[in-house]
Amino acid sequence: MEREAEIDRLPIDLLAQIFVFFSSFTDLARASGVCKKWKQGVKESLAQRQNLSFAGWEMDDDSITRFVRHAYNIRELDIPRNRWGCQITDSGLFRISMAKCVSNLTSISLWGMTGITDEGVVQLISRTRSLENLNVGGTFITDQSLFAIARSCPNLQTIVLWRCHHVTESGLLALVDKCHKLKSMNVWGTRLPVDCVSNLRIMSAALQIKL
Q: Which domain of life is it from (predicted)?
C-alpha cells in the first residue's frame, strides 16, 4: 500500500515526461495498464511526440491505431515492414485517417506494407494537408493512389515508389504535373517504358529520378 501511495503522489505531467523517454511500445502498453493515472500519463506523453516509428516492433492494426490516435502532434509517421511482423491493412489506414494528427503529417512511410491497397492509401492520403515526404515502396498500389496523391499533396517533395510494379507512366505524369514542389522520385524496379523518364524530365528538369 505504501508503494501505491508513492505512485499516486506523482503528478500526471511528471509521469508524461517520464513516459516520453520510453522507446518500447510494449513498455508503454504495460504502463498504460497500471492504473488510470498512468494511462493518462501515457496518453499525454504520446501527445508530446513529434514523430512515431514502429520500426522493429510487432504491431497490427489495433496496436498501431491505438498509439497514433493519442499522438496528436506528430509530424512523421513510420510504419515499415520488418522481420518481426509489423503489419497494417486498409482497415488500419482507414482508422489512422481519422486521427487528429493526419492533417499535420509531413512524412509518411508505409514501406513494404503488402497488406494495403489503393483503397486504404487513397483514404489516408485524402486526409493529409501538409505531406512533403511519402514512402510507399514495396507495396501493390496502382495509378489510383498516384492520382489521389496528385490531388491531395501539393507540397510533396519526395516520393519512394521502389518496386511498385503496378504504377504506370500515366500515374507518374499526373504526379509531376500536379506536385510542383516534387524534387525526388524513386522508381527503381518499376515497369516503365523507355521514354517515360525522358517525358518526366521534360515536365520537370530539376526532378531527381532514381532508377
A: Eukaryota
Is the dihedral angle over the CA atoms 136, 137, 140, 146 positive or is it negative?
positive
Boundary (domain end) residue, out of 48, 70, 87: 48
Q: Are residues 117 and 136 in the same domain?
A: yes
Q: What is the reported pTM?
A: 0.90
Q: Which residue has the higher pLDDT, 85 or 120?
A: 120
Residues 29 and 58 in one domain: no
Domain count within the chain: 2
**Model confidence at 1: pLDDT above 50:** no
CB 97 within 8 A of CB 70: no
Q: Which residues contact 113 (CB under 8 A, 6 or more apart)?
A: 79, 80, 81, 87, 88, 136, 138, 139
Whether the CB-CB separation of 73 and 103 falls below 8 Å is answered with: no
Could you tell me the three cell numbers for 183?
524534387
Q: In terms of domains, do 29 and 113 share one?
A: no
Task: Kindly state whether residues 7 and 68 are assigned to the same domain.
Answer: no
What strands lie across the sheet with 184-186, from one edge to the other?
51-53, 76-78, 107-109, 133-135, 158-160, 184-186, 208-210
Are 178 and 204 within 8 A, CB to CB? no
d(CA 19, CA 43): 9
Query: Which parts of 36-103 fold into alpha helices (H)?
Result: 36-47, 61-70, 90-97
Whether 76 and 55 have beta carbons less than 8 Å apart is answered as: no
Residues 6+ apart with CB under 8 A from 46: 28, 52, 67, 70, 71, 72
